[in-house]
Amino acid sequence: MRYIAIDVGSTFLKAAQLDVQYLAITNMESIRMPEPLPNENPLVKEWNAIQLLELMQGLIDRQLASCPGCKGIWISTQMHGFIITDEYGVAVTPYISWQDERGLEYADKLGSSYFSALMERVGEEAWRRTGLWEKPGVAAVGLFHMLQQADSGMEIEWEGQGTACPVSMNDIQTLGSKRLCTLGGYLIQSLTGSHVCHFTNAAPTGLVDVRAGEWDIDIVRAVGCQALQFPRIVVGTDIVGHYHSRWGAIPVYPDIGDHQASVLGSLADATNEAIVNMGTAGWISRVSDAYHIGEWELRPYFEGSYLPTITKLPGGRNMAVLVRFIADVGQSIYGTALTEDTLWERLLAEADRAAQYFKTGKGQSSNGQLHVHVGFYGKQTVADKGAIDNIDSDNLQVGGLFAAAMEEIAAIYERNLYVLATAGEAIEQITFTGGVIMKNAFLRDAIAKAVGIEAVMAPACDEVFHGLLRLALVSEGLYASVHETREVLLQAIL
């Protein structure tokens, strides 16, 4: 009684088998996400869609070879991005990811950036229906940018997409025969021929009324993409098609947003816990039964509930800026290169040593402790600049640098957790998830101390797979709802 699960993140593509009988995750495989296609514009982040499809299908086929009698395929992917295919499911654009910010380019004919022009066309009231913050890395903005450039007669060639795929921007002008796909929907279309996507992946495109669970025609018209063929939105988790493989016809389930799968797999209590996730980037979230707009994004969850969520928080990539600097010093000045794991281990040890030193008061210089502003990436939440200040002749040391950076990150999470607390009942516990925070005890302790409430680790790693396992248990008919699966998984893991 095993299912195959695919998790397509920003850094890794992973596969595993979900054993619904023994409540186990087995046969895990992981490969790195390919590099984005080369582009002179730093705002553009595109991936070869055909290459991604081959990698995803390769993971599935290798898992099927060792999973006799496979009950089905579950898919979870990164959100916000999109691919346009022809009527046969062949990609005619690269995969445009959530990291793409081409909408920030200035457009002479619009008198503003593409992003600002679209937000003005949509209007605040309509955009609020999406549940999203105004941000450039969503499909609605990328599509608007493409269509505006096509209308201007600009012909942009995409390199590296493959000879089997048309690459001219002019192809976008013939929209009637083209299909909009989420990343997971693109894989489902290739496996089954079905043009569908799950609600949790449709909503992050910025083209959906999150309360109605439908494509928002007003926003679609504002973008100008109404001639596209839109996928059918699936709200539940019923089978959407079959993959006719050499191992037989394998049921395929809808693509689940990696955020929702991660929250589900954290096994946090739905009423009074906040989930703090830190991977490449960071977010905090909680579950709510109410449709309540506030100072957060409101994302669809399962069984009619929502996830008030604060996104674009500092994460692993912020700390990586400092790590790369230290690595460069070691390599260029001393001719020494350490593995990434060894370098992190030593830096965290130095940060801990520095923190202990400051606690004694011995490390307090006349200028006080070093201060690191970690906003090294644009438009992060409450992290709008990158700088190191409060430097004097005594306090600029490696350990103090990293301790100060992590304490700044902890303060940012503290402020945003207070905001999230107003979205429901009082938050009584924090559950940590995500690869970066799981490996960083210093940062976990700093956040817990700043907030002043109990904080625990998610009981299992690979929370996306555990979230998909909970869905598989319901699909198998063993439980009536995902809520019922929490206690049984907690008992199995602990």
List strands and helices in order, with pairings.
Blueprint (H helix, E strand, L loop, with lengths): L1 E7 L3 E8 L4 E9 L13 E2 L1 H17 L7 E5 L5 E3 L9 E2 L9 E2 L4 E2 H9 L1 H5 L10 H13 L27 E3 L1 H10 L3 E3 H4 L5 E2 L4 E2 L1 H7 L8 E3 L6 E5 L2 E10 H9 L6 E6 L3 E4 L11 E4 L5 E8 L2 H19 L5 H20 L11 E4 L11 E4 L8 H23 L8 E5 L1 H4 L2 H11 L2 E4 L5 H13 L6 H12 L1
Parallel strand pairs: 1-5, 5-16, 11-14, 17-23, 23-24
Antiparallel strand pairs: 1-2, 2-3, 4-7, 6-10, 8-9, 12-13, 15-16, 17-18, 18-20, 19-20, 21-22
Number of domains: 2
User: Helical percent range?
Assistant: 25-40%
What is the CATH class of the largest domain? Alpha Beta
Q: Determine Rg (CA atoms, Å).
A: 23 Å
Number of strands: 24
Mean pLDDT: 89
Shape: globular
Order the strands across the largest sheet as they lie in space: 3-2-1-5-16-15
Descriptive labels:
22% strand, six-stranded mixed beta sheet, 24 strands, 36% helix, 494 residues, single chain, FGGY_N, transferase, globular, Nucleotidyltransferase, domain 5, 15 helices
Structural overview:
This protein is of the alpha+beta class and 494 residues long. The protein folds into 2 domains: 2-255, 2-Layer Sandwich (Nucleotidyltransferase, domain 5), CATH 3.30.420.40; 268-458, ATPase, nucleotide binding domain (Nucleotidyltransferase, domain 5). The chain is built from 15 helices and 24 strands. The strands form 8 sheets. The chain has a 6-stranded mixed β-sheet with strand order 3-2-1-5-16-15, with helices on both faces. Strand 8 and strand 9 form a beta hairpin. Helix 4 (139-151) packs parallel to helix 7 (217-223) and helix 14 (463-475) crosses helix 15. The longest helix is centred in the last third of the chain and has 23 residues, at 398-420. The radius of gyration is 23 Å and the shape is globular. The chain starts with a strand and ends with a helix. The model is unreliable at 153-170 (pLDDT under 50).
